[in-house]
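step 3/5: co-fold with protoporphyrin IX containing FE
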Amino acid sequence: ADEAKTSTVTPEQVVQAIEKTFGVTQGERRNHTKGVCAVGEFVGIPAVAEPYSRSALFSGEKIPVVARFSLAGGNPHAPDTAKSPRGMALEFKLPAGGLQHMTMLNTPIFGAAQPQTFFDAIQAAQPDPTTGKPDPEKIKAFKASHPDSAAQGAFLASHNPPSSYANSSFWGIHTFKFINKADKTTLVRWQFVPKAGEKPLSDDMLKSAPTDFLEQTLIEQVKQAPAHWNMIVTIGVAGDVEDNPSIAWPDEREKINVGTLTITNAMPQKGADCEKVNYDPLVMSDGIAASNDPILRFRSPAYAISFAKRLSNQ
Ligand code: HEM
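step 4/5: write tokens
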């Protein structure tokens, strides 16, 4: 066990472990396999955002967005009632071909401080050959030996999953840097807050809801009226955790509303715009930059491996 803790797991090994635990859906994402495409726009509030970031995202112009909503894990048939993370991935199409990605979850923190913990979690969830199910003893041992997984686990256990993607908050989780026109850097974290409010499944709905409802609910909701989220940025102060996505920042930090995301249309992922996007979270525009968070840095090569596989129909 000590050896495992100090060893350096590679993105290849993590993607292989995901494939072993969940199986492979040919030509599809290795993680967050089940999902739905959407499109819309983002309008920033320059008076609020520009003191912190010079990104063209916050110019106040309408920025086209290609979005994808998803369930965590590599199971393409995961039930929409599963108490697992939901994802929201955004590709903002900035003027002159510039891009900004935000690839978020509906939990404020992540279940791993380093890639090794994520790898160990995936391995612990591997189905036991005799039962076809994860071995509860292995999951227990994983939790006991990985305290950095506890906060996200507790959040997921105490919050029922959303009744609609349009009624869920999504967090960027990692610490990022905003850089303004005077080259001043501010540490930030962000959250997309649904204007329609958070509406989790009730305990009764959790038992009675069908396997698949999230995709159809979103498609039908946005046919009636667009769905909106405010982008709320938390301003960090000296000493706030910069490189550990498993630890939340104190609640009392200043929060600013820097713009609104509007989703105008949603559609099945096959053949739609989001299908062939690699939502690498390190694709960023001038004015927004990565921290040294080891999870954030690790995601980029892991997504590239999954993307290359699915594009070549593996
Ligand atoms: C070591 C940590 C992580 C690993 C190894 C990992 C791995 C992956 C992989 C392989 C994919 C599929 C990529 C593709 O084929 O396009 C994926 C998708 C995704 N991940 Fe992660 N991930 C990690 C952490 C995170 C974190 C911290 C977040 C949120 C802050 C996140 C949010 C998502 C979302 C939303 C998607 C779906 C993107 C889409 O719709 O295309 N992941 N992840």
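step 5/5: annotate
The mean pLDDT is 97.
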